[in-house]
Amino acid sequence: MSRSQPQKKGSVKFVSGSKTLFFPELKKRVDQYFENHNIAKSGGFRIKIKTLVLLALYLVPFGAILFANLHWAVSLLMWALMGLGMAGLGMSVMHDANHGAFSSKKSLNWAMSHILNLMGGSTVNWKLQHNILHHTYTNVDGMDDDISNKPALRLSPHAEAKPAHRFQWWHAFFLYSLTTLYWATAKDFMQWVTYRRNKVNTMTKAEYRWMLAKLIMIKAIYFFVLLVVPSVFFDVPFIQVITGFMLMHALAGLILTVIFQLAHSLEGTSHPLPDHRGVIENEWAIHQMNTTANFSPRNKILSWYVGGLNYQVEHHLFPKISHVHYPAISAIVRNTAKEFSIPYLQNDTFFKALGYHIQFLRKMGKMPDIDEAIG
After folding, report:
1. Predicted confidence (pLDDT) per residue in 106-154, tens digit
2. pTM tops 0.85, yes or no
3. Is residue 198 packed enough to be buried (19+ CB in 10 Å), middle (13-18) or exposed (0-12)?
4. Burial 21-37 (b: 16+ CB within 10 A, else e)
5. Are 124 and 211 spatial neighbours (Cβ–Cβ below 8 Å)?
6. Is the dihedral of CA 351, 183, 3, 199 positive or negative?
7. Confidence grade of residue 370 (pLDDT, cut at 50, 70, 90)
8. Residue 5's pLDDT band (boundaries 50, 70, 90)?
9. Using CA atoms, how far apart are residues 68 and 234, in angstroms rounded to an integer?
10. What is the pLDDT of residues 335-356, one digit of tens each?
11. Which end of the chain is more exposed for a tag (fewer CB within 10 A), N or C?
12. Are residues 242 and 164 in contact, defined by beta-carbon separation less than 8 angstroms?
C-alpha cells in the first residue's frame, strides 16, 4: 500500500468471521435497552428542539448583520455567534442526519442532512469521506481521509515524516481554523476528482456530472448570500463582511476539527496497518475500540453542544443511533468491553484529551516514519 494515498474502497479488509462474541453481545444488550425503555433510536423531540436553537444561533445573528446597522465590533460578535452556530449544526444536526439517526423518517434525515449546504459543503462528499472511509477504516493510513498526510500536518506514524511536521503542535491549530473555509472553497472539488479515481464514488457518468453542477450552484449561492447580499443590498461595508466571514469560519473550523481530533488523534489510540494481504488482524468492532476515545463524559453542556461527539466510542459502534442516547448506552458499552477484556478509551476532561492530542502532534512531528524505520 502506498502510504497516505487514498486507496480503492474494499482494498483493505478486517478479519472475517467473529473471533469473539463481543459485538453480537453488545448489540443485543443495546437493543434490549431501547426495547425495555420503549424508545426509538432516533433523536426524537430533543434533537428537534436543539436544531431550532442552533439554527437560531446561526441565522438570527445574520439577520442582525443585515438589518440592524451594527457597530463594527458588534457585527464581529454576530459573525462569531454564527461560527458557533455553524459548528453546532455540523456536530449535532447534520452529523446525525447523514447517518440516518436524526429521525426515523428518511425524508427528514435527507432534509436535515442538507443543513451542510448552509456551510457551503457537499452532503455526497461528506458521506463518502465520513460514513464510508472514516467509519470503516478508522485511523488506517491511506484509507481514512481524516488522518491523511498534509504538507504541514502529520497524523499517522505510518505517514511520511517531513521537516514541516516538526513544529506542527504549534501551527496545527491555525490549520484547523482553515478547515471549513477550505471545505467551502476547494475540498469538495478535489474530492469530486479523487473519490472518482479511487472508485469510492460509484455514480454513473450522468450523476457524476450533475454532482459537479450542484457543487458549483451550492457554493455560488452560499458565497452570494454570505458575501454579496450584505454589501450590495444592505450597504454593510465589504471589509466588515469579509472580516466577519473569515472570523466565522475560523471559529467553526477550529471547534469542529479539535472536537474530532480528540477522538482519534491523541496518545492512547492505535493506528493499525494492513498486512501484505490488505487485511487488518482484528474485527471491525474491536478495531473501533482501539482507535477511538471518549472525553469529558460528565460535562452535560459540552455533550449537548458537540452532539455527543465526546462519546465517539458509542458513535463509531452505533452510528445509526442518535447522539442523544449515547450517555445512556455508554455504561452498557463500557461494562461489556470490560467483560471481554477489550479497552474502553476515555479521558475524563476536555483539557486532558487536548493535552494528549498536543502530545500526539509533538510525537508525530519528531518520530520517523515507522515503515521506513522498520525497512
Report:
1. 999 999 999 998 888 889 989 999 998 899 899 998 888 888 878 889 9
2. yes
3. middle
4. ebbeebeeebeebeeee
5. yes
6. positive
7. low
8. very low
9. 10
10. 999 999 999 999 999 999 999 9
11. C
12. no
Collapsed DSSP state (helix, strand, coil) of residue 177: coil
Is residue 282 within 8 Å of 14, Cβ to Cβ? yes
- The owner of cell 492530542 is 357
Name the residue with cell 454589501. Answer: 231
Residue with cell 491523511: 148
Contact 94, 112 (CB under 8 A): yes
Q: At 85, list the grid cell.
A: 452556530
| Unique residue bearing C-alpha cell 442516547 | 325
- The yes-or-no verdict on residue 369 having pLDDT over 70 is no
Amino acid at 145: D
C-alpha cell at 318: 452505533
Spatial distance between the Cα atoms of 198 and 64, rounded to a whole number of angstroms: 45
Instruction: Identify the pLDDT of residue 372.
Output: 46
Instruction: Quote the crossing angle between the two packed helices 205-223 and 188-197, to the nearest 10°.
Output: 170
- Inter-axis angle of helices 350-366 and 168-176, nearest 10: 120
Cβ-proximal residues to 323 (8 Å cutoff; 6+ apart), any chain: 43, 47, 92, 95, 96, 101, 307, 308, 309, 311, 315
- Between CA 75 and CA 119 the distance in angstroms is 19
DSSP letters for 108-159? HHHHHHGGGGGGT--HHHHIIIIIIIIHHSTT-TTT-GGG--BTTB---TTS
Closest CA to 76 of 237, 221, 229, 257: 237
In this model, does residue 10 exceed pLDDT 90? Answer: no
Grid coordinates of 138: 478508522
Enclosing H/E stretch for 279 = strand 279-280
